[in-house]
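Before the break, one more example. Copy the sequence into your notebook; we will annotate it together after we see the structure.
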Amino acid sequence: MTARLEIRYQRPTPLYRPVTVRAKQLRHEGRKRFTVGEIVVDGEVSATAEGLFIARRTSVAAE
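Here is what the structure looks like once it is written out:
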């Protein structure tokens, strides 16, 4: 689930052109996942993002 998502647009991202989307998880604390990402077009970054996502709780099966 998305808790926070910040996107910085640095230049227009063109339509109908190949783009590369890169993302990685920086770290996790319990269920929190801290991430970053970017969109690259023709070798130039058009947008960057930072996000905080919360992993779902796992249910414990009764035995």
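The chain is about 0% helix and 60% strand. The two ends are 29 Å apart (CA to CA). Try to locate both features in your own notes.
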